[in-house]
Amino acid sequence: xxxxxxxxxxxxxxxxxxxxxxxxxxxxxxxxxxxxxxxxxxxxxxxxxxxxxxxxxxxxxxxxxxxxxxxxxxxxxxxxxxxxxxxxxxxxxxxxxxxxxxxxxxxxxxxxxxxxxxxxxxxxxxxxxxxxxxxxxxxxxxxxxxxxxxxxxxxxxxxxxxxxxxxxxxxxxxxxxxxxxxxxxxxxxxxxxxxxxxxxxxxxxxxxxxxxxxxxxxxxxxxxxxxxxxxxxxxxxxxxxxxxxxxxxxxxxxxxxxxxxxxxxxxxxxxxxxxxxxxxxxxxxxxxxxxxxxxxxxxxxxxxxxxxxxxxxxxxxxxxxxxxxxxxxxxxxxxxxxxxxxxxxxxxxxxxxxxxxxxxxxxxxxxxxxxxxxxxxxxxxxxxxxxxxxxxxxxxxxxxxxxxxxxxxxxxxxxxxxxxxxxxxxxxxxxxxxxxxxxxxxxxxxxxxxxxxxxxxxxxxxxxxxxxxxxxxxxxxxxxxxxxxxxxxxxxxxxxxxxxxxxxxxxxxxxxxxxxxxxxxxxxxxxxxxxxxxxxxxxxxxxxxxxxxxxxxxxxxxxxxxxxxxxxxxxxxxxxxxxxxxxxxxxxxxxxxxxxxxxxxxxxxxxxxxxxxxxxxxxxxxxxxxxxxxxxxxxxxxxxxxxxxxxxxxxxxxxxxxxxxxxxxxxxxxxxxxxxxxxxxxxxxxxxxxxxxxxxxxxxxxxxxxxxxxxxxxxxxxxxxxxxxxxxxxxxxxxxxxxxxxxxxxxxxxxxxxxxxxxxxxxxxxxxxxxxxxxxxxxxxx
Length: 782
Description:
It comes from Immersiella caudata. Keywords: Nucleus. By secondary structure, this protein is mostly helical. It folds into three domains: 2-62; 83-95 and 125-154 and 189-198 and 229-433, no CATH class; 463-492 and 501-736, no CATH class. It is built from 31 helices and two strands.
């Protein structure tokens, strides 16, 4: 009885305190088990699909191709900066490589209905771009449609059935493309297989049929060469009647041109190209007329909301889908082999009208984005090529859905980070072009731009936190590198572009990206003060410039004067400098000063110029603000104190140039404060009237203020000085090249002279030997 009462009390106590939590944990556990079960089912299904689609080549020899799995991306907090910048983002899906053996003699059996075509092995490996394109174009539609010969409707029986099933489309073909309905009963239209990258093989066919086909192939060998007359005929047909048959032949020939440099005996192309003019003609005709034919037969429509789309449910789209995929994949393949800038620009431009048609083929689209971004972020590319590639990216942002836009944004950011790894005088202009152009993409869809920008800025903050917490083994190098600096500067460009009051006034609402200003400023200020030594003063100046841009564009106050005063009070600026003959350090392309510059007059003068410039640029932002006198007073007091201490020193650094510059700056700041006091003495509103306070001197030109006029004059002087330095740099580069050429010529002459001397010496040696032999003969005679 006592035991039962104790059990009852324990049960009630358990129900009161713990039962609810236990039930909730059981529910969570059940949900987790259910989710894991679904994931296992999906993995098993994917494994079966991989074995079916990717194992055909191995099954031909009885070997099973192993299924490779992608490694999951590392968490942001666990990645090093190298992993982060070398591919920490899972942006583009890469095809899993196949390791199956090829069939005997390099041939595979004829593809059965519903079976995937074998992938071609590229010379660069299964993970290359070319193999990804082949996989996309050779595996059928992304939607799982059966794209066999009969489905494409290219035979006489299929077109007869089309007349009954879809009389409207049949009538459309009669009116617009009568050639498509002219069939020869014995003709074999195998263009679709050629377009998709697959060739019909001879294995599994009767011997008589193989003999007939070999005979017909031997007779057709002579007609395989592509001629300019054939291209002119296709050009005329597409220009006059938008012929689909001519378009198919053009795409086949264009594919042969794209694979021209590939030496693969097993991959026999329909046409051979032996003339450079023929190659040029087929490129121009295909890139010009194929988009026009597609637009004629399958026009791009615009919805009521302004969205561009293509009707993918019609028979026309299913008929032309393989042509579109083959043409796009051939362009991607061709881009990898071109080097001429004009041809690259023409080829990239041809991708723009194809983008609405490629939205249904996600794998091919991702490969295309990867290729275009590579040209956009490549330092060796010319400016026109990079701009053309960017226009393709922007067009894709406009016509694509949310998923496509996200892929473009992530690929653009990773391309920017990878392209800014090497920063010098020659590459800084291209890096700035990438920043300014990519910043525009984040304003097309600001809701998506906010989520992607937030995740990237958060990742930068995590790297900064890890460097602060784990301050060992040079962990600061994860932050103090060009890629991190350019990333912070890029987000400053993005927010400056889309969060300015003018942009918000045009849009009629506040920018969604404005919420990112505070976290970006905090991360930048933290990175600036991570290592407060004179070695990294150039990095501090780089980040201050990015924050000044952000403050100027968004009218946001950012406290930067204290960071500049810390530089003046550093030990580098107090100790006497060493004598040196070093050149002036270019702070625009440096985040770290060489150790040879430390404690030198050149470095101290450069730091002083940067401090004066940045302080003037900082104060000129608020030269019209009603609170300027109170705002500038603490800085004026500290600058005067620094000047007073530097004059009192009997020993140490007496930098007269920096002192005179700071004296002039203090005078201009005081004059501007007096100017504001005179203006606000005439106002009749109180400080509580916020609207009137914000409107104070808003229409007054900042260049006419005392500090504004000083800043304008300083900018002109710096521009002239920079121009002179750039001309001197180009002259030095020219002289260096001439000296190298002269040295090379001298070396070549010396090498040729050594050969002559060696020959002469050899002749003398032979002559000496002959003389000795003659002396011996004379002795014998005696």
